[in-house]
């Protein structure tokens, strides 16, 4: 147990060092990329350890799982899962930012929920740049979605999120990230959320300002939702 505990802190410190080193060698400032710890299927205990290690933002894919696990934790909460319209209210209540707005219907449901809560909800638009990915707006439909989300008075567009192709050749990965980056540049936002455990270096090279790291921080994910 103590060993496990040490290892999240060790991995966090090592990752932060590697990320800052990579930023420097790209001519970017250390600290310029935020590390969001992806906690899906991890226990609340693991999340507590990550926070103790210095993590200040977490990403969750499932509303029900986040509801129990993240309750009361002093951490910025990012929703990175598929937005189901019937869960929009809970998402707007629980999360500080929604990274995965990929269609007008989801935006409007979140907009109504945020209006009901009397808040303006920060969002990223999720762009699909990978043939293996189910969700996200196609790059050629991005401008249409952007206009739809801009019409939502209770949402604030902060940028773009994308998931890279999973087993890509380097060139394929670069092209995918550049596609996402071009959408980001049109979004008017400051956040480009690109990069997971397997491709964060390429993501930083493409200008990512936020890395969503699960496995690299926590080790292999438990198969299903952890017991809390
Ligand atoms: C699971 C997940 C991640 C983290 O993946 P790792 O490869 O474990 O770092 C990042 N982003 C999204 C949207 C995810 O669903």
Give a verbal description of the structure.
With 228 residues, this protein is of the alpha/beta class. It has a single domain (29-218), classed as TIM Barrel (Alpha-Beta Barrel). The chain is built from nine helices and eight strands. It has helices spanning 2-25, 44-53, 63-69, 88-94, 104-117, 142-150, 170-187, 200-205, 215-218, and strands at 34-38, 57-60, 76-79, 97-101, 121-127, 155-162, 191-194, 210-213. It has an eight-stranded parallel β-sheet. α1 packs across α2. It is globular, with a radius of gyration of 17 Å. The chain starts with a helix and ends in a 10-residue tail after the last helix. Mean pLDDT is 94; it is low at 1-5. The protein binds pyridoxal-5'-phosphate.
């Amino acid at each position: 147990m103590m060993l496990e505990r040490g290892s999240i802190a060790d991995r966090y410190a090592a990752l932060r060092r590697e990320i800052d080193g990579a930023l420097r060698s790209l001519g970017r400032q250390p600290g310029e990329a935020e590390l969001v710890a992806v906690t899906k299927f991890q226990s609340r205990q693991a999340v507590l350890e990550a926070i103790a290690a210095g993590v200040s933002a977490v990403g969750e894919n499932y509303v029900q799982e986040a509801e129990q696990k993240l309750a009361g934790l002093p951490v910025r909460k990012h929703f990175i899962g598929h937005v189901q319209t019937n869960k929009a209210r809970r998402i707007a209540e629980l999360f500080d930012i929604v990274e995965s707005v990929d269609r007008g219907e989801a935006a409007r449901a979140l907009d109504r929920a945020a209006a009901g809560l009397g808040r303006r909800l920060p969002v990223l638009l999720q762009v699909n740049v990978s043939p293996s990915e189910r969700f996200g707006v196609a790059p050629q439909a991005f401008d249409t979605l952007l206009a739809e989300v801009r019409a939502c008075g209770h949402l604030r567009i902060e940028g773009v999120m994308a998931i890279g192709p999973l087993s890509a050749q380097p060139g394929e990965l670069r092209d995918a990230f550049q596609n996402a980056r071009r959408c980001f540049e049109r979004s008017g936002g400051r956040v480009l959320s690109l990069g997971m455990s397997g491709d964060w270096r390429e993501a930083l090279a493409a200008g990512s300002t936020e890395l969503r790291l699960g496995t690299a921080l926590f080790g292999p994910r438990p198969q299903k939702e952890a017991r809390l």
